[in-house]
């Protein structure tokens, strides 16, 4: 259960008395928990976050608390003010679009580097993960679906350098915050989307790096435009369109929002991944 901090926002439960956590050492445990709190909306955009408060709530000294906050600031989850106070970043349509444009370009690069190197075992693994996603969707098991989805995309980008994959992981976390905002007042089963996954798999089967990159870019574009349609309907996605052109896609033919999924009561909502 989250606890309320002195600034009026929710704070993650404290770790053990000696400042350690099962998730790892003190700094990384705090960093991971605070990042999840931001992504899930427990720490609201614009909320002040101080090393004193974090240290008190986690039962540690201010030194590891400051380091955890520094890491979050470097990743873009916190912003500094002139008085050195840190606040949770407020999302904007420009930032949302920029994050996805960067993801599109890096995903295309990583996919094109990886696809020619995939083994038959890799393809079999992707096929199994796709079946797992379908089963999780049928069972409305959101957590299982997300794990399989992340693993699926990891396979067709695993051949890229550690630096490229680390940059993608950072962008994925930032995108997760936007997705969490979109899902905040929605049934999470609406977020299941199998669109484009079979195309990515087929490109991997044929070891076609160009088609793999195109399918992956189309998939991320669908997600980005679904989010933008819901969160910033008046925003023109010029940056995403340019990223698509650089990736070798025709932006006009690949810029439709994700299709809606019909709920049991007949209402329709878009789906995201």
Q: Can you give a write-up of this model?
A:
It is a single chain. With 273 residues, this protein is mostly helical. The protein folds into 2 domains: 3-88, Winged helix-like DNA-binding domain superfamily/Winged helix DNA-binding domain (Arc Repressor Mutant, subunit A); 93-270, GntR ligand-binding domain-like (Four Helix Bundle (Hemerythrin (Met), subunit A), Up-down Bundle), CATH 1.20.120. The protein contains 10 helices and 7 strands. The chain has helices at 26-39, 51-58, 62-74, 93-114, 120-138, 142-155, 162-183, 197-205, 209-231, 238-247; strands at 3-4, 10-11, 48-49, 78-80, 86-88, 260-262, 268-270. The strands form 3 sheets. Strands 3-5-4 form a 3-stranded antiparallel β-sheet. A two-stranded antiparallel ribbon has the order 1-2. Helix 4 (93-114) packs across helix 7. The longest helix is centred in the last third of the chain and has 23 residues, at 209-231. It starts with a strand and ends with a strand.
Topology:
Blueprint: E1 3-4, E2 10-11, H1 26-39, E3 48-49, H2 51-58, H3 62-74, E4 78-80, E5 86-88, H4 93-114, H5 120-138, H6 142-155, H7 162-183, H8 197-205, H9 209-231, H10 238-247, E6 260-262, E7 268-270
Antiparallel strand pairs: 1-2, 3-5, 4-5, 6-7
Distance, first to last CA: 27 Å
Low-confidence stretches: 1-24, 251-272
Helix-strand pattern: EEHEHHEEHHHHHHHEE
**Radius of gyration, taken over Cα atoms and rounded to an integer in Å:** 20 Å
The biggest beta sheet, please?
3 strands, antiparallel
Give me the count of strands.
Answer: 7
If classified by CATH, what would the architecture of the largest domain be? Answer: Up-down Bundle
Counting helices, strands and paired strands, the structural category is mainly alpha
> Biggest sheet: strands side by side, in what order?
3-5-4
In one word, what is the shape?
globular
Q: Kindly report the name of the CATH homologous superfamily of the largest domain.
A: GntR ligand-binding domain-like
Helix content: 55-70%
């Amino acid at each position: 259960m989250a606890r309320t901090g002195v600034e009026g926002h929710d704070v993650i439960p404290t770790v053990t008395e000696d400042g350690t956590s099962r998730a790892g050492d003190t700094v990384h445990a705090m960093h991971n928990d605070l990042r999840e709190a931001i992504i899930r909306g427990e720490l609201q955009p614009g909320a002040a976050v101080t090393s004193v408060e974090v240290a008190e709530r986690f039962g540690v000294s201010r030194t590891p608390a400051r380091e955890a906050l520094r890491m979050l600031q470097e990743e873009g989850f916190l912003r500094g003010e002139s008085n050195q106070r840190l606040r949770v970043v407020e999302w904007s349509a420009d930032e949302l679009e920029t994050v996805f444009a960067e993801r599109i370009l890096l995903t295309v690069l990583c996919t094109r580097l990886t696809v020619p190197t995939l083994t038959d075992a890799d393809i079999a693994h992707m096929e199994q993960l796709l079946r797992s996603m379908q089963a999780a969707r049928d069972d409305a098991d959101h957590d299982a679906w997300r794990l399989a989805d992340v693993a699926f995309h990891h396979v067709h980008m695993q051949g890229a350098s550690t630096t490229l994959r680390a940059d993608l992981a950072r962008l994925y976390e930032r995108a997760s915050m936007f997705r969490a905002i979109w899902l905040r007042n929605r049934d999470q089963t609406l977020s299941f989307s199998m669109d484009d996954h079979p195309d990515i798999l087929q490109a991997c089967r044929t070891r076609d790096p160009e088609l793999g990159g195109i399918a992956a870019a189309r998939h991320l574009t669908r997600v980005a435009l679904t989010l933008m349609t819901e969160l910033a309907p008046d925003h023109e996605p010029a940056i995403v369109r340019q990223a698509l052109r650089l990736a070798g896609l025709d932006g006009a033919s690949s810029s439709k929002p994700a299709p809606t999924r019909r709920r049991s009561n007949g209402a329709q909502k878009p789906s995201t991944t």
